[in-house]
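Repro:
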Amino acid sequence: QVRFVESGGGLVQPGGSLRLSCAASGFNFAWYAMTWYRQAPGKERELVAAITRAGDSINYADSVKGRFTISRDNAKNTVFLQMNSLKPEDTAVYYCNAVLSNYPHGRVFPSWGQGTQVTVSS
């Protein structure tokens, strides 16, 4: 059974930092590119960052370039998102998933984790 468990979110002031983690299980993690998505209230889920299997190619949404860094540890089946210089517009629930086809925006597993809430506010 495919499972994603996201953690590391919280309340942070503008300009602050958070490091999100996502533990994946139920599939061969090292075979798949991984992604972070986010969904803000009233908005559609959007792709934030993606990383290939070996980490040799990385993509970011324009809105987070230069502020967010995606990384992965294939030995621990975990993907990370380091978020710096956070802005109120980064407030959302953050999710991870694996890319099944058409990296980076393509099909992902139909199952999603519970996500982790990130709130940026003073």
